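Today's session is about reading a structure prediction critically. Students often jump straight to the picture, but the first step is always the sequence itself: look for stretches that repeat, for charged clusters, for runs of hydrophobic residues. Only then move on to the predicted structure, which in these notes is written as discrete structure tokens rather than atom positions. Here is the chain we will use throughout the hour.
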Amino acid sequence: MLKCIYQKYGVFGTICVFIVFIFDTASAPSGHHFLFKVLPVENCPMSKEEWDMASTRLKCNTTHGYHCVPDKYFTSLIEFCYPQGYRLPFEKGNCLELAADGILNHVPCAKAFSSGCPDRFYFSNELYKFPKCLTINTDLRCFDADIECIYSRLMQNKTAEQHNKSTVDYNNDGPIQIPYNTVRINSALIIVTVLLIAMVIVLLILAALIYKRKIKWKGKREFKTGKSENNELELTGKTHLKEENEESAIKNERFLIDINEIHLKEENEESINENEPLLIEIKEVPEDLRKIHKIITESDENGFESFINQLEDKTSLLEETDARGFNSLHLAAKGSKVKIFDKIIGCEVRIDSKVVNDGRNCLHIAAHHGNYPVCEYILKNYQKLFECKDRYNMNPAHWAALAGQKSILELMMEHDCDLSEKTEKYEENIVLFACMGKSLSVCQFVHSKEKIAWVLKATNREGWNSIQYAAKAGDLGVFRFLVEKGVDITNKSKQTGKNCLHTACEKGHVDICKYILENSPDLIHDRDKNGQHMGHFAAKSGNVEILMLLLKKLDIDDLMKATADNINILHVACKYARLEMCKLISVKCPSLVHEMTEKGWQSALFITERAGAENDRISILKYLVSEHNLDVYHVSRSGKTILYNACVNRSPKLVKYLLAKYPDLPDIEKSMNPFEAAKSKEIDNIVQRHYQKKHT
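Below is the predicted structure for this chain, in token form.
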């Protein structure tokens, strides 16, 4: 790299490049350096509707799925079309960030957050369900819910800038004030940086002189030996190819370590990634990589043979990975012919190489995509690959079941693979994955095999059985089959006490709700461990048809009953911005509009408890105020108001509407200052304009 920079820019240009690099790495991060386009946003979507609208706006699709997460430096929320798909599974206890040069990665939050950290397994396109994972302090570069991080950064600021002292006042509702300080370079770092620059300049001058002498000597030797400039360029290209393959090996190795070490590895690699634009200008490998990957994807045997025979270093190119972390072997496993797959192995590409981002090997991929010939080839020659787990602890059979690949599971059974194996952490089996993927054929296959039929009734670590997974996925065919084969329809989860009817109501699956009420009507009376009944879960989904169905089976008084802390179904409908549900409930039972919880919350505060769907929340507020005289000026026991919650959740439309419609909201006695909780420049501007207008 140094040689190419010197040839293009000379000694002075090379020194300038290094000085800029040193200042860039010594200061706070100033760019994203991702392999695909990302766009900074003020707020991420906070509902499915907003998520889908944003996806349409960016023209994302199922192969390049819409995502919105914090960037790797926590300086901004960013949205993008992720080239690795739209629905990737992630473990509970983790939020997400876009790390390294474009990898959607875990950020542990279970210990850091007081609340709001994902408490269950989820898919990446459901991140809006966990708003605290999408709420960051860009000045302190922390999640808002990560009090320890915020406190640590504030202490750093206090040490660096004594004249800008600030304290953080805490109460039961979290931090009241967090200043917008930025971390600056202290004097010691500046001195070290200056010394480093001086050393680099001296070393570069010496290196340039030595290099110049070598070029001069080499020119004389080439004149005598007849070497051409083209040969020198060819040698340079091979050198870069080797360097890039070494970087790829480092990236592949990164995901072989424990997941808890990922962040440390990525931080060490970021400085390398930031320099990559210098290499991109002079390397020609990406073009070859695109060509060979296109040939493999199209399963063009003749084209593969012709292209690969032109290469001297076949292995290096075939082991190079694309933006998704797939090398040539992975792509061949996905959908190419077995002859191409065999030829790639013949080029000494490692059969056990893993996809960078999720740790899958070629058998995982072939099984998931139903590439029967490649699966058969692998199981005959490399059956040990079946025992390998990806970063989610899933084996190839789990991926086959998730995709409904019955024939692949049959093939695995013929090779004596253990299809009853569970994932280590969550204890999920192939039937549970089949229910996730709505695959009736896999469930029927398992039931037909005496050796593994018991798996149909097994539960995961949290006590969920296949009936509950099917209720969540919403496939009536799978659900009915499991009931008919004796899977326990009354089963409850260990942690929450939810049964399958709770789940079907929560997800809005009307057909499954009807089936359960016809075949096991007593389930309608069950409550979960939080005291929530079917009405609460129907209100959450917003499915009015389900609520009407429940009203036919229950007295209205039973359906309107609140939890132990007095949360009623209207509170839930307001919280999740279910407009039609709010209208129906308030008509059926108007008294719920004014009921308060143990914390002193009523419907107005629940309307702004969550972010997203701001237009629906405004419509709910208008309706409840005009039709049921909802008290907008209500204050909770801790001093929260409808405006305070809107500011905390960074809902600019709501804040603007509330200030315009109810200008006295900020001045309510006993209430906490809502604007100190906002931490949003957009809301700050709205507030400033409000007060300017008020005083003119």
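Discussion point for the tutorial: The two ends are 62 Å apart (CA to CA).
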